[in-house]
């Protein structure tokens, strides 16, 4: 039986409408529902952190219902939360993304150099390899996570420089063969949640230096400051001797 032309036109119109952008209010509600589904999926470990962040970005830029539905098509249906709850879930998800610490990272310098300075984010474990090259890690502008952060070094005819701020607890051990492993940082007395930087390494015909510097302080300024501090300590010790005037 032939289909009336009006019905055909109506069906085409419905299909076309599905691809059109939703009215602003409806699109906003659908976006909040999608974001809530993504947050629930992340909370239930159905989404990895990187996938969760990528889908959130797409959800905030989506202009059609089809784009939003595609983001949750592989997630089980869950209840739809109120807009305020959705916003809270997004904030919690964003906070988890900011506070997440990468498990491990590898830095390689072969006849070249690798440098990390400024507000960079260290991993729980960093493996640094320097072969006829150099690695420089500056922790002065880093927000250290609670607990232990490890740096494992291997230098062959190369070197590594680790710069830490005063007060950061550092535990360093190393083996140097025809080279040096210099540690100038105080070990400190960390508590259970205190950030601790643990450094170990092997140097063959190379060297590792762990230096303490104030934020923005150059190597020369640090030497002058340390020299003045030693001079002050000697003067205080001299004044405390019996019979000193």
Question: What do you see in this structure?
Answer:
With 245 residues, the chain is α/β, with parallel strands linked by helices. It contains 6 helices and 10 strands. It has helices at 5-19, 24-43, 49-61, 65-72, 83-99, 219-239, and strands spanning 104-110, 113-116, 125-131, 134-138, 148-156, 159-164, 169-177, 180-183, 196-204, 207-212. The strands form 2 sheets. A 5-stranded parallel β-sheet has the order 1-3-5-9-7, with no helix packed on it. It has a 5-stranded parallel β-sheet with strand order 2-4-6-10-8, with no helix packed on it. The longest helix has 21 residues, at 219-239. Residues 1-22 and 79-83 have low confidence and may be disordered.
Characterize the biggest β-sheet. 5 strands, parallel
The dominant shape is elongated
Distance between the termini: 119 Å
Question: What's the helix count?
Answer: 6
| Parts with pLDDT < 50 across at least 5 consecutive residues | 1-22, 79-83
Derived from helix and strand composition plus strand pairing, the structural class reads alpha/beta
- SSE pattern, N- to C-terminal: HHHHHEEEEEEEEEEH
Q: β content, as a range?
A: 25-35%
Summarize model confidence as the mean pLDDT: 76
Q: Taking strands numbered 1, 2, ... along the chain, how are they ordered across the largest sheet?
A: 1-3-5-9-7
The strand count comes to 10
Overall radius of gyration: 29 Å
Helical amount: 25-40%
Question: How is this structure best summarized?
Answer:
Helices cover 38% and strands 27% of the residues. It contains six helices and ten strands, in the order H-H-H-H-H-E-E-E-E-E-E-E-E-E-E-H. It has helices at 5-19, 24-43, 49-61, 65-72, 83-99, 219-239; strands spanning 104-110, 113-116, 125-131, 134-138, 148-156, 159-164, 169-177, 180-183, 196-204, 207-212.
